[in-house]
Design a protein that fits this description.
Layout (H helix, E strand, L loop, with lengths): L4 E9 L8 E6 L6 E7 L5 E6 L5 E6 L4 E9 L6 E12 L1 E6 L5 E6 L4 E6 L11 E4 L15 E6 L5 E6 L4 E8 L4 E11 L6 E6 L5 E6 L4 E8 L4 E9 L10 E7 L5 E7 L3 E7 L6 E8 L5 E6 L5 E6 L4 E7 L6 E9 L3 E10 L1
Antiparallel strand pairs: 1-2, 1-28, 2-3, 4-5, 5-6, 6-7, 8-9, 9-10, 10-11, 12-13, 13-14, 14-15, 16-17, 17-18, 18-19, 20-21, 21-22, 22-23, 24-25, 25-26, 26-27
Family: Belongs to the cycloisomerase 2 family.
Protein name: Lactonase family protein
InterPro entries: Cycloisomerase_2 (IPR050282), Haem_d1_sf (IPR011048), Lactonase_7-beta_prop (IPR019405), WD40/YVTN_repeat-like_dom_sf (IPR015943)
Length: 358
């Protein structure tokens, strides 16, 4: 990262209460403090965000009932501020997650409301084109209210953007697709569906930067599962399953987000209820996980968190207490330490960060 770069944070929110859309902040690299720059109206519930590899465009999933929308914005390279470009339908109900492929040609989105995934092409000016593919999932599982039918909670591309993993929350499966980058289509993988223990509720997936391992965090069972990953064939093989909660915790909690740091040395997950970030060390040779500890997040329902581009800070967004809390990261131990910086943001759902040369 250039010494003359500025780090910006983009926070997607639910607009059910006082939120006005997408909140833009500038990060102080010395302290981790976030300074509010602007707020952009992003339509109804611009919750989950994704930024293209060129860092020129931002895309937001508008989580609404009926047919959802995906919104496109241009990022001002000198100020970090957003300008609305256009919207396209997501093809399904309540899109809650999206990602841009490494070429910057496509947005892939997952619809939670009806359990479907879609592909939208990105035009030369950053606007979204008409959908090039749509896949409707089927299936259900054992939870009496949350798993009555298919519900896609995320879709994640591997580091090479060759294969996508959809966390099929409603049917307790990981669905693997090969991305046809010539036509913007999703083709079933060699092993297209990987079952997960019934009632788990797979939510978010993260690949290790070495493309050898992957991790899924399960909302309902409060577990993290690690996989060996064959990047040539797009095949996942279960390695181990670990609890995200302390053994003596008996109250209700539900997992949310999961991230691997850029060095590939630690994986972090968020617990809503226990209100903590769980930390695991990744063994460099085998990818096996060792519990490091749990860090209280100083808020309720830590739905999303992000590791900043320098790897020095973690920012945790609390949907139920309308705040974002900053932590420093110990690169050697993986442990987090509160910085004392705590900003108010109404119903934050997702944080994304970029570093722009100035």
């Amino acid at each position: 990262m250039s010494s003359h770069s500025t780090i910006y944070a983009y926070i997607g929110t639910q607009t059910d209460s006082t939120s006005e859309g997408i909140y833009v902040y500038r990060m102080n690299p010395d302290t981790g403090e976030l300074e509010h720059i602007s707020t952009t109206a992003g339509g109804i519930n611009p919750t989950y965000l994704a930024i293209d590899p060129s860092q020129r465009y931002l895309y937001a999933a508008n989580t609404i009932e009926g047919e959802g929308l995906i919104s496109a914005f241009a990022i001002d390279p000198s100020t970090g501020q957003l300008t609305f470009l256009n919207q396209q339908p997501s093809g399904g109900s309540k899109p809650v997650h999206l990602i841009v492929d490494q070429t910057g040609k496509f947005v892939l989105a997952g619809n939670f409301g009806d359990g479907s995934v879609c592909v939208l092409p990105i035009e030369a000016n950053g606007k979204l084109g008409v959908m090039t593919d749509f896949v409707q999932h089927t299936g259900s599982s054992i939870h009496p209210t949350r798993q009555l039918g298919p519900r896609v909670h995320s879709i994640t591309l591997d580091p090479g953007s060759r294969f996508a993993v959809a966390a099929e929350y409603g049917a307790d499966q990981l669905r693997v697709y090969r991305l046809d980058a010539d036509h913007g289509e999703l083709k079933p993988g060699i092993v297209p569906s990987i079952p997960i223990e019934a009632g788990s509720g797979p939510r978010h997936f993260a690949f290790h930067p070495n493309e050898r391992w992957g991790y899924v965090i399960n909302e309902l069972s409060n577990t993290l599962m690690s996989y060996d990953y064959d990047a040539d064939e797009g095949i996942l093989r279960l390695k181990e399953t670990l609890s995200t909660l302390p053994s003596d915790f008996t109250d209700r909690s539900n997992c949310a987000d999961v991230h691997v740091n850029a060095d590939g040395t630690f994986v972090y997950g968020s617990n809503r209820g226990h209100n903590s970030i769980v930390i695991y060390a990744i063994q460099p040779d085998t990818g096996e996980l060792t519990l490091v500890g749990h860090e209280p997040t100083q808020g309720k329902a830590p739905r999303s968190f992000v590791i900043d581009p320098t790897g020095s800070y973690v920012f945790v967004a609390h949907q139920d207490t309308d705040n974002v809390v900053a932590f420093t990261v110990d690169r050697q131990t993986g442990l987090l330490q509160p910085t004392g910086h705590n900003i108010k943001v109404p119903m934050p759902v997702c944080i994304k960060m970029i570093s722009l040369p100035q």
